[in-house]
Specification:
This protein is of the alpha+beta class. The protein is built from five helices and five strands, in the order ααββαααβββ. The longest helix has 28 residues.
Length: about 140
């Protein structure tokens, strides 16, 4: 299923890169979202430790990908982890859409390549790719 959804991506190389990313010092978690609708395709780490789920019956959560998930990682998580990932994905999707609109308003021939959101506690790095969005949450390095 995933290979049909993402034909231009070498799945083995992608899996290896994501595995290496998970092992980097300071990386708390990462999410891979569908580029078309923001659905959570894959997660790693404890999303609920980064941002606990606020509501199990979240009406604003994004849909699951059509035809199942990118891998079994999302299904293996607890309900709380799944909801936390969906809520974070929804917030990131909204943030990315707003930032993309800003870039488009400034220069319609330009495009968004990377977003970094740094707080006192952590940093979110959002990388929009052709078929997916990669969101990495890591510790904020000391200044």
């Amino acid at each position: 299923m995933a290979e049909k959804a993402m034909p231009s991506i070498n799945m083995e190389a992608l899996e290896e890169s994501l595995h290496r990313l998970s092992k980097k010092p300071g990386v708390k978690a990462w999410l891979m979202l569908d580029r078309t609708n923001g659905a959570v395709l894959k997660t790693n780490g404890q999303i609920s430790a980064v941002r606990p789920a606020r509501s199990i019956n979240n009406k604003t959560s994004l849909p699951s990908p059509t035809g199942g998930s990118f891998s079994t990682d999302v299904n293996a998580n607890t309900d709380n982890e799944t909801h936390a990932a969906q809520e974070l994905a929804s917030m990131v999707w909204s943030f990315l859409s707003t930032a993309g609109s800003l870039v488009d308003e400034i220069d319609s021939e330009d495009e968004l390549k990377l977003l970094r959101l740094r707080t006192k506690k952590q940093e979110l790095v959002i990388v929009p790719e052709v078929k997916y969005l990669l969101v990495v949450v890591h510790d904020t390095p000391p200044v």
